[in-house]
Design goal:
alpha/beta, binds 2-phosphoglycolic acid, 256 residues, eight-stranded parallel beta barrel
């Protein structure tokens, strides 16, 4: 049976959707719906401004709350940025780092993302490190090379204990927000490569307990085929995480 070693994690990346009012309403509706699957780790990532509302609404429940990004410094003259210290003060437990929209729309480099990974770990925030290739890179046969570079740079200098705090999300850029999900075969191939490569980087067995999520147009009707694959340990869901019913259906999905 797949997934015996690893907890399934279902995470919702709300991007620039949902103010505090919508956030509160979502969580009030969503939490009771998911009471039946407590063995899964459920995390939502609202916009910064909605984090206090989310944390308040989720207090005492099994739902975890994380931020979509952060700066690596603790404080300073960085207009418009939010620090790991601030996220911890609020009560966030997770932070998405290196999302493809940060990489490709806002120009964040591997080196910049690496500084954030180190800072998140130093402040006891679990980074959800996103990796994944562009369509042109896949078509040029460079997928594994790209993913390898993102892992080399994103995880440089970590010890195995720190690695254990990291959640990885494989999100092929061509599948994000396009409705074109990677097939279970394509996703499994990359996930297996990532696990194999992490063992090479950190030592045999280092990746066995790591959760590697898939993201990119995950919907209630394609989630089961993906979760059935051995190395897919959950999802990072964008669009389909904005409605409690849809996100709940994904959170409850079982392999066929
Ligand atoms: P999507 O987004 O599910 O809307 O494709 C996924 C993501 O960007 O994390």
């Amino acid at each position: 049976m797949a997934h015996q070693k690893r907890k399934l994690i279902i995470a919702g990346n709300w991007k620039m959707h949902m103010g505090p009012v919508g956030t509160r309403a979502f969580i009030k509706a969503f939490v009771p719906m998911t009471a039946a699957s407590p063995e899964r780790e459920l995390i939502v990532f609202p916009p910064f401004i909605s984090l206090p509302a989310a944390l308040e609404a989720a207090r005492g429940t099994h739902l975890r709350i994380g931020a979509q990004n952060m700066h690596h410094e603790e404080s300073g003259a960085y207009t418009g940025e939010i620090s790991p210290v601030m996220l911890r003060e609020l009560g966030c437990t997770h932070v998405i780092l290196g999302h493809s929209e940060r990489r490709h729309v806002f120009g964040e480099s591997d080196a910049f993302i690496h500084r954030k990974v180190i800072a998140a770990l130093a402040h006891s925030l679990s980074p959800v490190l996103c990796i994944g290739e562009l369509l042109a890179e896949r078509e040029a046969g460079r997928t594994m090379e790209v993913v390898q570079r993102q892992l080399d740079m994103g995880l440089a200098g970590l010890d195995t204990e720190q690695l254990g705090q990291v959640i990885l999300a494989y999100e092929p850029v061509w599948a994000i927000g396009t409705g074109k999900t990677a097939t279970p075969e394509i996703a499994q191939e990359v996930h297996a490569f990532v696990r194999w490569y992490l063992d090479r980087l950190f030592g045999p067995g280092a990746a066995a307990a790591m959760s590697i999520l898939y993201g990119g147009s995950v919907k209630r009707d394609n989630a089961a085929g993906l979760i059935a694959r051995e190395d897919i340990d959950g999802f990072l869901v964008g669009g389909a995480s904005l409605k409690p019913e849809d996100f709940c259906a994904i959170a409850a999905v079982d392999a066929p």
